[in-house]
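Consider a typical record:
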Amino acid sequence: MQYQNWGPQEMAAPAKNSLPEVPVERGMVLEDVQSGWVGAVTRVEKSGGMHVVALEDRRGKSRSFKLGFGFLLEGQPIRLMPPAPKAQPAGSGTTGRTASGSVRVEGQRAQVAKASRIWVEGKHDAELVEKVWGDDLRVEGIVVEPLHGIDDLAAAVASFRPGPGRRLGVLVDHLVPDSKESRIADAVMASPGAAGNVLIVGHPYVDVWQAIRPSVLGIPQWPVVPRGTDWKTGILTAFGWPHETKEDIGLGWQKLLGAVRTYADLEPALLGRVEEVIDFLTVP
């Protein structure tokens, strides 16, 4: 032991400046060294004058911890810091750009939700759209809702009763010619009231995970999953991540989502379709 380190000190804190300081981010998977608790960051808030981070484990349970020393990120000890402040450009009236690249307007409040909706196939699609376009959608008053699959899309659209002022935009995975998804979309668009009030678009990927550019994840391309293997399970297996339970898949997705910062981290095949839906719902 070095003599200059002798004396009272926080047990979880190593010598000053010995660890990298990492700003906390939503989706980051951390381990609390003292308790062994492992979970993904779901929120950061101030409580009693200090920053507290909530970590949700693979079973959906959540615990809160004070930011600072005593955390592992990808197995490496770090000092967990408050979220990094967003840079604000000079000039009045704006505070930079949103994750989608739109100009952020200072003081703009979210509108009351309109009747129009964006439907996506599942929770992961909704979380990705929210992360990149959430600020814009709140300004427009547009809500994103997950469908949990499109097998019953025709019935869902009929129940929604689309019409003028009540439009519906649907983002579908793997919407390619002669696929099951394309046949479902064609049937819906042929139904009464759909023309002009419903827009169904899609990307070519098996799952929305693939819409994240591989370079953002530090890989040359997405792994090829053998036929007959669940796609998400195959991807996590290829990455060497836990993959046996729904909780494993959820935590794996949070790690992938955590790598996405702006629209530039996504493939153009998804970007264009989401922008198309937003235009359809917001342009008179």
User: Anything to note?
Assistant: The first strand starts at residue 21 and ends at 23. The CA atoms of residues 174 and 204 lie 4 Å apart. Residues 123-140 form the longest helix (18 residues). The chain has six helices and 13 strands.
